[in-house]
């Protein structure tokens, strides 16, 4: 089997190889994850991942969602999926052994099998990875083995890891660490962020419809200054950051912010959007969807697809109705690069500047 990437092919010949290759295929180490991959002959196509819901009553919904995300359309080479590969990575509960987690999630495999077969497809393999061990749900003898099979570690990497790194594959990200860097501010900083957002909303409402236009125009000017003359703007203070976050609630301002994803803008963009996302403390958590989408878009353009996936999924979690996160995630899942979308953004900028002149 080969992986979806045409740049850094990883040969996957067995379940053991797939378990070891998974972090490279995703770009990060999966946790609490339900993962499906499309198989066409010996070609492993698109992969899709979602968190495993704590409530088993939500399992049917998440399986259908992940299948919608994965899609059953042909891949870029025109191949239709013939069967699917399932990997479950359950989070260990307190006092739980890896084998217990494997058995606890067997009903999730049954749910997935039912949904997949209704689509006329077949599960080629179903694996569980837990606590540094792995099992095949389709191998009765394997399921009876309390110890399962060992997952190659960083200290004792297998051939797949050695070959992938030698061929130039990136070392997989630690997803938990990426998300920790996006966690809302705490302590005094959280209080300052919340107060600043409270005051920004009051000022926005006091100015009425005409004042709203001025408010958004100031946001456009601030974005331009941040990226074209950063020495003039410096770092955003709490008031400026809150006003920019409020302005980014407008899809018009968000789309203008997406214009700053050119190579020269990326270092500043990655830092700015991360900073703004962390300022979205309760009760403004859903405000983080816009800066997270902008951060994901910037990461995608910086050729860090794995980080883009993690960040865009977090945007979907914080605001399930934020359609731009869905759009970008679907493009990535379908194997598209960022350049066509960035070209649309460039054309949008050219039209906007021409209208302003």
What class, by secondary structure content? alpha/beta
Helix-strand topology string: HEEEHEHHEEHEHEHHHHHHHHHHH
Mean pLDDT across the residues is 85
Question: Could you give the order of strands across the largest sheet?
Answer: 3-2-4-5-6-7
Major sheet summary line: 6 strands, mixed
Q: How many structural units, i.e. domains?
A: 2
Specify the helix fraction band: 40-55%
Shape: elongated
Count of separate DSSP helical elements: 17
Detail the poorly predicted runs.
1-9
**Number of DSSP E strands:** 8
The radius of gyration is 22 Å
Distance linking N and C termini: 55 Å
What topology emerges from the helices and strands here?
Elements: H1 15-26, E1 28-29, E2 33-40, E3 43-51, H2 59-70, E4 83-89, H3 98-104, H4 106-118, E5 123-130, E6 133-136, H5 140-143, E7 149-150, H6 159-166, E8 173-174, H7 175-180, H8 187-206, H9 208-228, H10 230-233, H11 238-247, H12 251-257, H13 266-278, H14 289-301, H15 305-318, H16 323-333, H17 339-356
Parallel strand pairs: 1-8, 4-5
Antiparallel strand pairs: 2-3, 2-4, 5-6, 6-7
Helix pairs in contact: 1-6, 2-4, 8-11, 13-14, 14-15, 15-16
């Amino acid at each position: 089997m080969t992986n979806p990437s045409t740049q850094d092919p990883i040969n996957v010949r067995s379940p053991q190889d797939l378990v070891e290759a998974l972090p490279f295929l995703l770009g990060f180490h999966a946790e609490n994850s339900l993962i499906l991959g499309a198989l066409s002959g010996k070609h492993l196509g698109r992969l899709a991942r979602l968190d495993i819901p704590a409530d088993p009553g939500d399992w049917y919904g998440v399986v259908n969602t992940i299948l919608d995300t994965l899609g059953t359309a042909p891949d870029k080479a025109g191949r239709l999926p013939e069967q699917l590969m399932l990997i479950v990575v359950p989070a260990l509960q307190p006092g739980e052994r890896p084998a217990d987690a494997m058995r606890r999630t067997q009903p999730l495999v049954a749910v997935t099998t039912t949904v997949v077969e209704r689509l006329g497809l077949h599960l080629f393999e179903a694996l569980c990875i837990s606590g540094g061990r792995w099992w095949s749900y389709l191998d009765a003898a394997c399921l009876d083995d309390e110890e399962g099979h060992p997952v190659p570690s960083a200290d004792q990497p297998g051939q797949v890891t050695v070959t992938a790194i030698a061929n130039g594959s990136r070392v997989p990200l630690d997803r938990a660490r990426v998300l920790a860097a996006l966690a809302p501010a705490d302590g005094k900083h959280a209080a300052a962020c919340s107060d600043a957002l409270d005051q920004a909303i009051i000022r926005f409402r006091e100015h009425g419809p005409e004042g709203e236009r001025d408010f958004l125009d100031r946001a456009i000017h601030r974005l331009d200054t941040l990226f074209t003359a950063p020495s003039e703007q410096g770092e955003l203070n709490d008031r400026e950051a809150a006003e920019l976050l409020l302005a980014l609630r407008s899809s018009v301002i968000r789309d203008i912010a997406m214009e700053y994803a050119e190579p020269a803008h990326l270092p500043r963009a990655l830092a700015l959007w991360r900073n703004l996302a962390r300022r979205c403390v309760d009760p403004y958590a859903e405000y983080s969807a816009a800066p997270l989408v902008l951060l994901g878009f910037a990461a995608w353009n910086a050729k860090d697809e794995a980080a883009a996936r993690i960040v865009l999924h977090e945007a979907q979690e914080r605001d399930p109705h934020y359609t731009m996160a869905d759009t970008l995630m679907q493009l990535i899942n379908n194997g598209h690069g960022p350049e066509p979308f960035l070209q649309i953004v460039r054309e949008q900028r050219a039209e906007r500047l021409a209208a302003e002149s």
